[in-house]
Amino acid sequence: MPDAPAIPLFDFSRFREGDAAARAAFAAELGAACRDTGFFLLENTGILNARRTAIFSVARGFFALEQAKKDAVAIAHSAHNRGYVAQKVEALDPASGQADAKEAFNIGLDLAPDHPSVVAGEPFRGVNLWPEGAPAFKPECLGWYDACLALGLELHQAFALDLGLPEDWFADKFRAPMATLRLLRYPAAGADAKGGIGAGAHSDYGSVTLLATDGVAGLQVQPRALRGTDEWLDVPSVPGAFVVNIGDCLQRWTNDLYVSTPHRVLAPAQERCSVAFFLDPDPDAVIEAPSVCLAPGEAPRHAPITGAEHLSERLNATYAHRAN
What we know:
This protein has helices at 13-17, 20-36, 49-63, 67-71, 116-119, 137-163, 248-253, 307-316, and strands at residues 9-11, 39-43, 83-85, 103-107, 180-186, 197-202, 208-213, 219-221, 233-234, 242-246, 263-266, 272-279, 286-287, 305-306. By secondary structure, the protein is α+β, with helices and mostly antiparallel strands. It is an enzyme of class 1 (oxidoreductase). Belongs to the iron/ascorbate-dependent oxidoreductase family.
């Protein structure tokens, strides 16, 4: 097996509370991880463990609802990537011939039905779908959404510093982002499910992903050192820390300097829950590599594309209900 790099652990208080020199040093170390594995662990983010406990509690409560209540808010009812995804509906790795065993629930930027963008039918500007019979569900989900959004925006300040951009370079690209909070449940694999998959091998679509897990193993990554092999690297669990990874959008934005690394979730031996926050930019943000990401004389590797166009391309390849 080739030598695979370890997944580093970063203390975010170094960036949040440090002086200019400390913030620059943190950003450089973070940037090295973004170029290498594309995955890292982040602790001391300021998001309280009590809030983490609450979001996992409402997530498990939702998945325990009777199937009819979950189906009433199915993602097929939304053109904007909101709602419930049943088991075997999603296939993140179509080439494998296996549908994902997981079930999920997606929440986007919370807009009122009379919001001008909703009324106009703008892409990824729909209303959220909320289940009946779960009064704590909406406030806890929106509280977690807001906390992760603030953390994700701070991380982009560190990315900007590492890349040699002004610290606020990403700010106007994330004014009302297409961020998605995703609650996930992976049922325990039965004795006959050896080799099954909880989530097929894929890379994430957005700019950055913040993942909270319940500590049950199953998440694996395949960094560059392991590409072309059958080997995968297990992602460790650190209590209270986020698993963070670079998505395809940020890889494209950095002209492939940062790497969006393939990962998968094996069918777990026991039920596994996680809460993922996928941070995509504004729908009209233009994803185009700045000059600092180009070597002298190098042309951009990717044509400019808007955030909405990029996300639509990826989702249309994943969900059958979006085919039309």
